[in-house]
Amino acid sequence: MKIKSEIIIEVKNLSKKFKDIIAVDNISFNVKKGDIFAFLGPNGAGKTTTIRMLTTLLHPTSGYIGVNGFDINDTTEVRSSFGIVFQDPSLDNELTAYENLEFHGIMYKVPKEIRRERIELMLKFVSLWERRDDYVKNFSGGMKRRLEIARGLIHHPKILFLDEPTLGLDPQTRNHLWDYVKKLNKNENMTVFLTTHYMEEANKVANTIAIIDNGKIIAMGTSKELQKITKTNSLEKAFLVLTGHSMREEAGTARDRAKFQGRMWGVK
User: What percent of the chain clears pLDDT 70, i.e. is strictly above it?
Assistant: First the structure.
């Protein structure tokens, strides 16, 4: 059952354990409808695990998640509420660029005429319209990244999860992407939940920023609020004060994203 609220993502006392490892440790936060919410943290801090739970890939050990007014266990309704752009590629290399977007639009039940209009719009947006009939396996890494972004936006979801969406993109494409995301956010009141290692991006586009480390949310607020509490003059410096300067190992693989895609459509 859907519950009406101005909160579109609700997280209460959320934890995830892997045997003796506590990856996410009793965190709570809310995301308001129409917000651009940046979720930042060092590698291994619990960021990726949290996102997997929010997108139904992982079951929480304990706690509550509500997405678009639905309990996270109502997977069909939750999954229809969001789009996602993965950090690693999850396209079908044996389909053309157009076919990848059409398949995604069909899965999300975008009406045929609207689907065709949006596919053309998005392929032109990422400068791939002239390559629409080419197989993705022949695309460069940058072209595949741009196609991933187009696919994530094709059904204009209530919530858009962006996991390092601009990784590997040139500055012009990065700026173009964020301008379009902000336009969707403003015109359609689309909520955006993003992760990025580019602090200037979070500083530029996010209304609210949460920082997670060692499985706990250690700070949350606007960029200016985080700078104020850390007595720094930039978001990057505030981030380093809060999380430290030590290097962290990367977490998450392309296989995890492929596994997610399979679960989305009922493949074990």
Answer: 89
Please name the residue that has the structure tokens 């706690």.
63
159 forms beta bridges with 82, 191
Tell me the average pLDDT of the chain.
Answer: 88
In a domain, 133, yes or no: no
DSSP per-residue codes, the chain: -----SEEEEEEEEEEEETTEEEEEEEEEEEETT-EEEEE--TTSSHHHHHHHHTTSS--SEEEEEETTEETT-HHHHHHHEEEE-SS----TTSBHHHHHHHHHHHTT--HHHHHHHHHHHHHHTT-GGGTTSBGGGS-HHHHHHHHHHHHHTT--SEEEEESTTTT--HHHHHHHHHHHHHHHHHH--EEEEE-S-HHHHHHH-SEEEEEETTEEEEEE-HHHHHHHHT-SSHHHHHHHHH-S--------HHHHHHHHHHHTT--
Residue 135, domain member (yes or no): no
Please count the structural domains in the chain: 1
Better pLDDT: 198 or 191: 191
Length of the chain: 268
- pLDDT(217) > 80: yes
Residue 114 inside a domain? The answer is no
- Confidence label for 58 from pLDDT (cuts 50, 70 and 90): very high
Residue 120: is its pLDDT beyond 60?
Answer: yes
CATH number of the domain bearing residue 78: 3.40.50.300
Residue 55, domain member (yes or no): yes
Amino acid at 9: I
Write down the residue that tokens 């998450």 correspond to: 252
Q: Which domain holds residue 37?
A: 7-91+159-264
